[in-house]
């Protein structure tokens, strides 16, 4: 296997881990959406999102990746809200 193939193998293994963790997060988002529906709460919680972004920038070890990590978590939260909207629409 050449170097590029070897590195891509490593990416494939990391993606597998990412998807497993993503599934766990989405299952929790699902439970949060059910709670919001039952308690008539809005999908967006700006304060919570800002706190998550702060935690990400504090906890990332390689500061070279800070901006990318913030972009990443913002995209994840966008996906989370889109999924919650879908669940809420299905209830109506
Ligand atoms: C999951 C929630 O809903 C929204 C999505 C968030 C997320 O994906 O982390 C955070 C805050 C909310 O804007 C929540 O309220 O906790």
TrEMBL record:
Which residue numbers delimit the Chorismate mutase domain?
1-88
**Which InterPro entries does the record associate with it?**
Chorismate_II_sf, Chorismate_mutase-related, Chorismate_mutase_GmP, CM_dom_sf, CM_II_prokaryot
Q: Does the keyword Cell inner membrane apply?
A: no
Q: What is this protein called?
A: Chorismate mutase
Is Glycoprotein set as a keyword in this record?
no
**Domain of life of the source:** Bacteria
Tell me which PANTHER family the record gives.
CHORISMATE MUTASE
């Amino acid at each position: 296997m050449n170097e590029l193939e070897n590195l891509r193998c490593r990416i494939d293994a990391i993606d597998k881990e990412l998807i497993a963790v993503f599934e766990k997060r989405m299952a929790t988002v699902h439970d949060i959406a059910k709670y919001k529906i039952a308690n008539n709460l809005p999908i967006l919680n700006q304060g919570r999102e800002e706190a998550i972004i702060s935690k990400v920038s504090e906890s990332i070890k390689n500061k070279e990746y800070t901006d990318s990590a913030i972009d990443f978590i913002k995209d994840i939260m966008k996906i989370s809200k889109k999924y919650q909207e879908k669940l809420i629409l299905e209830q109506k």
